[in-house]
Write a structure and sequence with these properties.
Layout (H helix, E strand, L loop, with lengths): L2 E2 H8 L2 E3 L5 E2 L1 E2 L9 E4 L6 H4 L6 E5 L11 E5 L2 H16 L4 E2 L4 E2 L4 E2 L4 E2 L4 E2 L4 E2 L4 E2 L4 E2 L4 E2 L4 E2 L4 E2 L4 E2 L4 E2 L4 E4 L4 E3 L5 E3 L5 E4 L4 E2 L4 E3 L5 E4 L4 E2 L4 E2 L4 E2 L4 E2 L4 E2 L4 E2 L4 E2 L4 E2 L4 E2 L4 E2 L4 E2 L9 E3 L4 E2 H31 L1
Parallel strand pairs: 4-5, 5-6, 6-7, 8-11, 9-12, 10-13, 11-14, 12-15, 13-16, 14-17, 15-18, 16-19, 17-20, 18-21, 19-24, 20-25, 21-26, 24-27, 25-28, 26-29, 27-30, 28-31, 29-32, 30-33, 31-34, 32-35, 33-36, 34-37, 35-38, 37-39
Antiparallel strand pairs: 1-3, 2-7, 22-23, 39-40
């Protein structure tokens, strides 16, 4: 892949300052870039690298004024960071653009595969399954019987989609994630043992969702576990049976959402958060990392922290007091000593 500064300028609606015919064939950080590399400058603290870089082209802000000589050709845009993200997406799309069915793989005769799809080696597509147009199904991926996958999806190696699950369009699932495994349902018996409760529901993932590596979303006992449109899940996340994650909510790594809990739209949930079952979290809630949510959150747009959780402000005050405890202990000991001396 090779592009000129002029082509990049047209793509990003920017202006070229320098040689419009200079070419690049890779993307790189400005401090590491070599000849033939394209980089960007968005944070002023990295400006010094601009005067040292070997990059052939650097994307900068439209109002940027260099303080020293710059050897690279500059492409001036309104927002360098957003512009570079567009290039990263284009680069990734081109790099991952595969089509066809590799062998050995298994596609059941009753399965339907859309046009321009890619099915990698050792993939398995079950009976009655549907895979939409332009999907990229990487090697060792499993798509179970009667599962449905929309258009323009990417499933990286080792993804497992159990039977009857429904995936929307433009969904990305990273390596090792499991969609539709059994929910954690067991009935305690009089003798202390547990009988398994069959999990006969499914998982529904709506459009434009991205799920990180080695995450697990359990199928519902009955009905559906639902991941709404635009949700972004990090690596190593557990979503339990019959839970629902609201539209455009983002959740960081190692968080667990227990069964039948409902997370509202546009929530931001930090890493290692634990959310108990059968509660609801209001729209726009922000939950700090390592918090324990043990009851419903009913106020929208609030910040929360701690275990058990409380308002973010209260937790910060509590932290200040906690850090002062050693000093308070010393003062208390001094007061006790002073009282004893007087007695």
């Amino acid at each position: 892949m090779q592009f000129t500064a002029q082509q990049i300028g047209i793509l990003l609606n920017g202006n070229v300052d320098g040689n419009p015919d200079v070419t690049v064939n890779e993307l790189a950080k400005i401090e590491e870039a070599g000849t033939g590399s394209l980089s960007f400058l968005a944070n002023p603290k990295y400006e010094s690298f601009l005067y040292q870089t070997n990059a052939s082209i650097v994307i900068v802000g439209e109002d940027f004024v260099p303080s020293s000589e710059v050897n690279a050709t500059l492409v001036r845009v309104k927002d360098p960071y957003s512009a570079f993200s567009i290039l990263l997406e284009k680069y990734n799309t081109i790099k991952l653009n595969k089509v066809g069915i590799e062998q050995p793989s298994f596609v059941h005769p009753s399965a339907r595969i859309g046009k321009d799809a890619y099915i990698g080696a050792f993939a398995y597509i079950g009976a009655g399954a549907i895979v939409g147009d332009n999907c990229k199904i990487y090697p060792q991926t499993y798509i179970g019987d009667n599962a449905e996958v929309g258009d323009d999806c990417t499933f990286f190696p080792g993804v497992k989609i159990y039977h009857d699950c429904k995936i929307g369009s433009r969904v990305v699932i990273h390596a090792g994630s499991v969609i539709g495994s059994d929910g954690f349902g067991f009935a305690p018996q009089a003798d202390g043992s547990y009988n398994k409760i069959s999990q006969i529901g499914n998982v529904i993932i709506e459009d434009d969702v991205e799920i990180g590596a080695n995450s697990s979303i359990d199928r519902a006992t009955m009905g559906s576990t639902i991941i709404r449109q635009g949700v972004k899940l990090d690596n190593l996340i557990q979503i339990a049976h019959n839970a629902e994650i609201g539209k455009n909510t983002v959740i960081a790594a190692q968080t667990g959402v227990s069964g039948s809990s409902k997370i509202g739209e546009q929530c931001i949930i930090g890493g290692q958060v634990g959310i108990v079952g059968h509660i609801s979290v209001a729209k726009g809630s922000q939950i700090q990392a390592q918090s324990g949510v043990n009851r419903s959150i009913e106020e929208e747009g609030k910040k929360w922290a701690g275990t058990p959780f409380s308002s973010y402000t209260n937790q910060m005050r509590a932290q200040v007091i906690f850090n002062r405890l050693p000093d308070l202990e010393r003062k208390l000991e001094q007061l006790e000593k002073a009282l004893k001396d007087k007695l």
